[in-house]
Amino acid sequence: MVQINGKPVDAAGKTILEYLQTTSYKLESIAVERNEEIIPKSKYSEVMIQDEDVIEVVSFVGGG
C-alpha cells in the first residue's frame, strides 16, 4: 500500500503518470513529491510507485 496525500492507496506498480491519469489532477498545475523528493514532470512516465512510498500531490492555485 502507498500513502498519497495522507491516504492509503493501492497504486504500487504503476508509474506516477499512470496513477495521475486515474485522477482529476491537471498535470500542468501540479507538483509531485515522492519520499520527500520532487519528481520532475519529465520523469512521471518513468518513476514507478513502490510499496511504502509516501507521495504528495500539490496543486497550484492562481490568484490575484
Task: Provide an overview of this structure.
The structure is a single chain. This protein is mainly β. Helix content is 8%, strand content 31%. The chain is built from 1 helix and 5 strands; from the N terminus they run E-E-H-E-E-E. It has a 5-stranded mixed beta sheet, with no helix packed on it. A hairpin with a 2-residue loop joins strand 3 and strand 4. The radius of gyration is 11 Å and the shape is globular. The N and C termini lie far apart (39 Å). 9% of the residues are buried. The mean pLDDT is 94.
Write the layout of secondary structure elements.
Blueprint (H helix, E strand, L loop, with lengths): L1 E3 L2 E3 L6 H5 L9 E5 L2 E3 L14 E6 L5
Parallel strand pairs: 1-5
Antiparallel strand pairs: 1-2, 3-4, 3-5
> What overall geometry do the principal axes of the alpha carbons give?
globular
- The protein's oligomeric status is single chain
What is the C-alpha radius of gyration, as a whole number of Å? 11 Å
**Low confidence ranges:** none
Largest sheet: 5 strands, mixed
Tally of strands: 5
Strand order of the largest sheet: 2-1-5-3-4
**Helical run tally:** 1
> Which band does the percent of strand residues land in?
25-35%
**Share of helical residues:** under 10%
- Along the chain, the helix and strand elements come as EEHEEE
Short structural summary:
The chain is mainly β.
Q: Which key phrases capture this entry?
A:
5 strands; mainly beta; 64 residues; 31% strand; 5-stranded mixed β-sheet
